[in-house]
Amino acid sequence: MGRPSSEFKKGRGSGENPRNRFESFSRIKITDPDWEAEEEPSPATQFLTDTSRTIITTHTSPDVGFEASINPYRGCEHGCAYCYARPTHEYLGFSAGMDFETRIMVKPRAPELLRGELSSKSWIPKFLAMSGVTDPYQPIERKLGLTRKCLEILLEFRNPVAIITKNYGVVRDKDLLSALAKFQAAIVYISITTLDRDLCGILEPRTSRPEKRLEAISILHSEGIPTGVMVAPVIPGLTDPEIPRILQSAAQAGARFAGMVPLRLPFAVAPLFEDWLEQHLPDRKNKILNRIREIRGGALNDPEFGSRMTGKGVFARQIHDLFDLSCRKTGLNREKFQLSTRHFRPPAGSQISFDF
Hints:
This protein is an alpha/beta fold. Helices cover 31% and strands 12% of the residues. It contains eleven helices and ten strands. The strands form two sheets. A seven-stranded mixed β-sheet has the order 2-3-6-7-8-9-10. A three-stranded mixed β-sheet has the order 1-5-4. Helix 8 links the parallel strand 9 (227-234) and strand 10. Helix 7 packs parallel to helix 8 (243-253).
């Protein structure tokens, strides 16, 4: 691997703050040649209060797999270089680069808002996804516990939840998830991009390392919690050869289900990832970018429904075939699992049940 330049601070996945696409100005770094160059320290993370009045977000996208989600945090300190959610920070007036991983918006009223929305007469029980945008178990969760408090509310209502995370911290909440699982109301996917510990350290700097994620699968499985592995994103030309080994390792740890999503690089993520490749893997940069273009119709991103989550072309089919074959060999996805809303109960403790 190439040695990272001083622009990439320790524990950070981006080396700059590119211009917000909604702003007419940009920040420019000015250096004084008369001063001796010194590496700047990694910027400290700032936690800012998000005053949102709602917590459940819905959408009509046909290819995401869920229609409603909750996100206690906006921005993510995990700092994954490829994160498709980075451009969402631009709606807040921030940059998709360093701002996304160092200016985290916190929703302190998330549990309170969730209780109110689940109690509403207009709420039609449906499963909620946690991490539709950013990871619910990023480092600050250890201190604030907003994700856990939301799970407590979901258990009270017996409302089903699906969690996707890259963080071992999810095992802290095994008691709540196990209780929800008894009502067919919980499933957890642990996302594994690579089993290469060193690559993980620069690609996903503040996430749990691969061996800890496999351990999390094992612990959750032992608690009776339906658990899967999400091979995401698959980075063509870099991590796609690891698909069989990731799935085999996950299955041996106790995973029963698996999913896969190829890399896409929307808006500011493309130049950020290109810069990351230049700093860390310069000798493989062109191959990786060309492979991405092969599955994205000649571009680095494909926003079209139907193909944005799968890719297209011969190489995309090869990746999916490798994934499908590996699932069959390891026994993953052999059984079907569906979250149920039939045990949902209103706050008054009524025995009314729902089944959708």
